[in-house]
Amino acid sequence: MSIEFDPGLIDYAQRPPRLPQPVDPNNDDLPIALETRLELYESQLTLRQFEKRAYDLFLQNLVKGTSHLSLGMEAIAAGFGKAMRRDDYSFATYRGHAHTLARGVPLGPVLAELLGRANGLLEGKGGSMHLTSVEHGMMGSYAIIGAHLTIANGAAWSAQLRGTEQVSVCFFGDGTTNIGAFHEALNLAAVWDLPVVFVCENNLYMEYTPIDLITAVENPAADRASAYGLEPIIVDGNDADAVYVVATEVIDRARRGLGPALVEATTYREQGHSRADPGKYRPVEEVAAWKARDPIPLYHQRLLRLGVPEQDLTTIQQAVAGRVDEATEFAKSGAAPALELAMKDVWADGSAVWRN
Prior knowledge:
Rossmann fold; about 40% helix; about 350 residues; two-stranded antiparallel sheet; alpha/beta; globular; 11 helices; 6-stranded parallel beta sheet
């Protein structure tokens, strides 16, 4: 018996669009210092300009392998990055450029890593999906869905045992909430009161599939929180101020030994899952509505309402553009990795020194 595949069965573009909620006008009045808000604006601009440059270089065939961009999702990385202490830990998925930069990793080495150059963050060996900088608390980008949640628990447990008050913050997509490691990690974190914050970046699609089609609850992360004794927290992931306030609260709570948190940040990626994906499976009205909720223009308008002169914002934009240009030249100037680098950091001697 043969079964014919009917592509019409998964024509998601014909589904009703899932539209964003309006911006909360009260967020203009959140108790955030103007200096902090300007830093959040600069951070979001940096992440956006970096991703756009990475896209341009990909089209020039300079980026090695594929890449997963965070265009439209910058407010989450910026808000949490600003709320974290320098020695806190970040764990990200393969969509980790923004989270890496938000922890203060320099633009040049990150862009050079995407190009596979020897002056890259990992000497060109890791590429887009494995960005890591222990020096900056960026403990890795992980390509295996859900794998890093348990590792984030390990880092949090280490901090708990050492009494350092460090917090582990773990970012993941909505699809991860249906992976076994998600539930195992939340359960253990709750049982042991680990100083860890789990952040679901719900951009509505797990790769190409709408998350609501394969999930029994409306909010894939928040609606599962109560099963582990945690508070259901949903935040507008396209509003950096809202993210920063929530991030500050849950990180501070974890730092004081009051246990883990699970945050669901609603957002939208403005392009496809990866550079190989045109994203045509999404309703046109949905894409347009979420682009109108782009976090950066919205934040720009908020700063104007708060009295920041347009010229000051233009100055920040120009400074960011200059740094991205400098990073591009740095990345392009890097040599190809030497052949002997292929065997570096690969083998262990298998001795009792590390086993014991």
